[in-house]
Design a protein that fits this description.
Largest sheet of chain B: none
Number of strands of chain A: 7
Strand order of the largest sheet of chain A: 3-2-1-7
CATH architecture of chain B: Orthogonal Bundle
Largest interface: A-B, 17 and 18 residues
Radius of gyration of chain A: 20 Å
CATH superfamily of chain B: ACP-like
Distance between the termini of chain A: 35 Å
Radius of gyration of chain B: 12 Å
Helix content of chain A: 40-55%
Helix content of chain B: 55-70%
Oligomer: heterodimer
CATH topology of chain A: Rossmann fold
CATH topology of chain B: Non-ribosomal Peptide Synthetase Peptidyl Carrier Protein, Chain A
Number of domains of chain A: 1
CATH class of chain A: Alpha Beta
Number of domains of chain B: 1
CATH architecture of chain A: 3-Layer(aba) Sandwich
Strand content of chain A: 5-15%
C-alpha cells in the first residue's frame, strides 16, 4: 500500500481466509490450552457479539455453543429481539437471563441514582440519563465527563461530573458487565465450556471494557480486527442485515448513547483509520486527507489514543506478583 | 505564591506518588512523566476546587493550566485574583 491511496479500502481483509484463520485458532486453543468442550457467548444484538457467535458456531458447531441473552431494565427495546434473532439465525441454543433483579439486589439502581443526585438533586428512578464526554476534535483541553439527564417531562439537564459522582456512577454501572460475566461463567462451568470475549480492536486497544466484566474471557476472537473488518466478516458470515445496519451503541445507560459520545473521539469508520494510521506510522497529512480532518485534529486524536492506552493499561494486567512463582508458568 | 505551590506539591506527592517525590520538580509534566492520567486530572481539579474554593471552567481544562506544579500555581494565581 502506498500512503497516497490510504482509505477505508486499506482495511479490507479477505473474509474467507480471515474466518478460516480464526476458527482454526479457536479449535486449537480449546483443545490445546483451554481444554473445554464448547463456548459461551453473551449476545447483545450488536455487531461484535453477533460475529463472535457466528465464528464460535462455525468453529465447533452450533450444538457446542450457548448464547446468553442478558438484557436489563435500561437496555434498548430491540436488544432482546436482535439477540434472539442472531442466536436463532445461527441455530445456537439460547438462554434468556434478565439481570434486572440481580442488579436490584446488589443495589445498582439505587447506587446509580444516589450518585447522580449528588449533581442533580431532583433526579429519581423515572428519569433517564447517560454520561458523555466532549468531542476532542472540537476541544483542545482535557475531556471530563458530564451527566445528561432527562425528566419524564421537561428539559434535558447537563452537568459536568465532579470526581466522587463520576467514580460512583462508573463503579455502579460496571455491575452490569460484571453481572453478565458472572452468568457467562456460571453456564460455562456447568457445561465445561469456555467463555468468548467480544471486543474488537478499537475496544481492546483503547480499554473500552470493564475489568472482570466484559474484559474477562478465555478467547477474544476478534480483538485483532478493526471494527470495519468486523462488519466485513459479518457480511461474509451472514449476520442478519438488521444487526449489520444498527448503529453501534453502548446499550448501558437509560438514555441512548453512541460509542463516539461516550468514549471514542470519532465514529468507528474514522477511528479505525486513525488507529491504523498511527499503528502503521503513516504520514499524518495522509491520514488527515483521508478523513477530511486537519492535521491538528488528527494530532489530538493520536494524543487521545495514547492517553487512553496509558489510562486503561491496568485493565489488561493480570494480578501482579511481588516475586515470580517459578512453578506456575503462564504459557 | 510559595504557599500555593507547596500545597499543590504536597497534594501531588501524597495523592499520586505515595510520598515518593523523587524526580518531581515544579516544571515536571504530570502527563509526560505518567504521574497523572485522565482520572488523575479529575482528581486534581477536584482538589483545586475544594482547597482553593474556585470553579474550574471547561475552557480552563488545558495542559497550560494543569500539567505541572508551576502551571497549576500560575493558573491559580490569576484565578484567585480574578
Amino acid at each position: 500500500m502506498t500512503n497516497t491511496k490510504f482509505s477505508v479500502e486499506t482495511l479490507k481483509v479477505n473474509p474467507e481466509k480471515e474466518v478460516d484463520k480464526i476458527i482454526g485458532q479457536i479449535r486449537r486453543l480449546l483443545t490445546t490450552r483451554l481444554k473445554r468442550r464448547g463456548l459461551v457467548v453473551g449476545v447483545s444484538g450488536g455487531i461484535d457479539s453477533s460475529v463472535s457467535l457466528a465464528l464460535a458456531s462455525k468453529a465447533i458447531g452450533p450444538e457446542k455453543v450457548l448464547a446468553l441473552l442478558m438484557p436489563e431494565r435500561d437496555s434498548a427495546d430491540e436488544t432482546l429481539d436482535l439477540s434472539t434473532l442472531v442466536a436463532d439465525h445461527f441455530k445456537v441454543e439460547k438462554i434468556h437471563e434478565n439481570i434486572s433483579e440481580i442488579l436490584k439486589a446488589v443495589g445498582f439502581y439505587s447506587r446509580y441514582d444516589n450518585a447522580v443526585r449528588q449533581v442533580i438533586p431532583e433526579y429519581n428512578e423515572n428519569w433517564k440519563s447517560k454520561i458523555i464526554t466532549p468531542n476532542i476534535i472540537e476541544t483542545k483541553g482535557f475531556s471530563l465527563f458530564s451527566i445528561v439527564a432527562k425528566p419524564p417531562e421537561g428539559e434535558i439537564i447537563k452537568k459536568r461530573l465532579p470526581l466522587k459522582a463520576y467514580l460512583e456512577i462508573v463503579a455502579a454501572t460496571n455491575f452490569k458487565q460484571r453481572t453478565r460475566k458472572m452468568l457467562e461463567y456460571y453456564h460455562a462451568d456447568r457445561k465445561n465450556f469456555a467463555v468468548i470475549g467480544t471486543p474488537n480492536r478499537l475496544e481492546y486497544d483503547q480499554g473500552f471494557f470493564v475489568k472482570l466484566g466484559d474484559g474477562a474471557a478465555d478467547i477474544k476472537p476478534i480483538a485483532h480486527l478493526y471494527k470495519t473488518q468486523v462488519y466485513e466478516l459479518a457480511k461474509y458470515l451472514g449476520v442478519p442485515e438488521k444487526i449489520r445496519k444498527r448503529p453501534p451503541t453502548t446499550d448501558t445507560y437509560s438514555l441512548p448513547q453512541g460509542q463516539d459520545e461516550f468514549y471514542f473521539s470519532l465514529p468507528y469508520e474514522k477511528m479505525d483509520l486513525c488507529l491504523y494510521g498511527k499503528n502503521n506510522n503513516l504520514a499524518i497529512e495522509v491520514v488527515a486527507k483521508a478523513l477530511d480532518l486537519t492535521i491538528e485534529q488528527i494530532k489530538r486524536v493520536y494524543d487521545d489514543i495514547d492517553t487512553k492506552r496509558v489510562t486503561t493499561r491496568y485493565l489488561h494486567l493480570s494480578p501482579l506478583l511481588i516475586e515470580d512463582v517459578g512453578e506456575i508458568t503462564v504459557y | 505564591m510559595s504557599d500555593i505551590k507547596s500545597k499543590i506539591k504536597e497534594f501531588i506527592i501524597d495523592n499520586f506518588l505515595f510520598g515518593d517525590a523523587d524526580g518531581l520538580n515544579d516544571e515536571t509534566s504530570f502527563l509526560d512523566e505518567g504521574i497523572i492520567d485522565s482520572t488523575g486530572i479529575l482528581e486534581l481539579v477536584n482538589f483545586l476546587e475544594e482547597e482553593f474554593s474556585i470553579a474550574v471552567d471547561d475552557e480552563e481544562l488545558i495542559p497550560e493550566n494543569l500539567d505541572s506544579i508551576k502551571n497549576v500555581a500560575a493558573y491559580l494565581e490569576q484565578k484567585i485574583k480574578a
